[in-house]
Amino acid sequence: MSGNANASSDLGAQVRSAVGRVYRRFRSERVDGALGDSAVTVLTFIHKYGPQTLTQLSEADRVSPASMSQSVNRLTSAGLAVRGSDPSDRRKVLFTLTPEGEALAAADISQRNAWLDERLATLTDDERAMLAEAAALLNRIADS
Amino acid sequence: MSGNANASSDLGAQVRSAVGRVYRRFRSERVDGALGDSAVTVLTFIHKYGPQTLTQLSEADRVSPASMSQSVNRLTSAGLAVRGSDPSDRRKVLFTLTPEGEALAAADISQRNAWLDERLATLTDDERAMLAEAAALLNRIADS
DNA sequence: TATTGTTATACTCTATAACTATA
DNA sequence: TATAGTTATAGAGTATAACAATA
């Protein structure tokens, strides 16, 4: 058991475990009555990158177009987003946030980030720098 | 917009984004007919740490005992786990994997890790070492 | 009384299949 | 024909509330 033939798999398992544990911890920090995971992710994405088509949203979250259609349906039903037309291609639907959607997204995001910010504040500068590098690397991996 | 008053929140947002993106990517790598997220997590945990009570499992995943009860119900219905008694405390239920559960857990885990291992293989030694440190740090954060 | 676990019920999120509308 | 999007239906996962059994 002292060999390292599975060194890569071991690292993979470590990363998978860490990502899963932090993700579930994030999820458990959701407060009563707050938005669900998909809703927050979609609101955040539109907030950051502007109006998006259904296909853009479904690819960003790696879910099926049908799943995303239902997620945005919940958002529009709640008055957080609206459907708009793309003049250049009438098949497309551009989803835009309402003022309520923008406000709720910002509030929920900062609430969910609260516990993480507390932990990050206790780290050393070196640890924070390392984590920033790791986050960039993980984002690159997720996109590849 | 050039200040760094929110440096901590920025790092938090980066980490949150990276974790969410990798997690969703993991989820999307699930193959047809494979186990769901909760099932894999529970099977992996029991496989790694041995028979567990419901409370232990629910705390490990940070879900309610009621949610975990239903998750393990799906596992026992599928013949992947069995309920056992704790002689020292008859309120407790010890969940143990069947041979089928052990085999399926191992197979599904390696399948889900496949794409990550491919990416990790393209990294430099320094990057892998950094990622291992980051994973340890994230696990520590998730537990705190 | 407190702890451990379960069931009932409802919501979010996701998927596949079948469909409409536009390019 | 191909692409963009929707709806119908089903299943996994989660939560709260109410409950039973044991400590």
Order of helices and strands of chain A: HHEHHEEHH
The overall pLDDT average of chain A reads 89
What distance separates the N and C termini of chain A?
Answer: 32 Å
**Spatial strand sequence of the major β-sheet of chain A:** 1-3-2
Structural class of chain A: mainly alpha
**Given the structure, what is the number of helices of chain A?**
6
Oligomer: homodimer
Shape of chain A: globular
Task: Give the amount of beta strand of chain A, in percent.
Answer: 5-15%
Report the major sheet of chain A. Answer: 3 strands, antiparallel
What helical percentage do the residues of chain A reach? Answer: 55-70%
Low-confidence stretches of chain A: 1-6
The chain pair with the largest interface is: A-B, 50 and 50 residues
Q: For the CA atoms, what is the radius of gyration of chain A?
A: 19 Å
Overall strand count of chain A: 3
Structure notes:
- The structure is a homodimer of 144-residue chains.
- Helices cover 68% and strands 8% of the residues of chain A.
- The first copy, chain A, has a three-stranded antiparallel sheet with strand order 1-3-2.
- In chain A, helix 2 crosses helix 5 and helix 3 crosses helix 4.
- The N terminus of chain A is likely disordered.
- At the A-B interface, helix 1, helix 5 and helix 6 of A face helix 1, helix 5 and helix 6 of B.
- Chain A binds a DNA duplex (23 and 23 nucleotides) through helix 2 and helix 4.
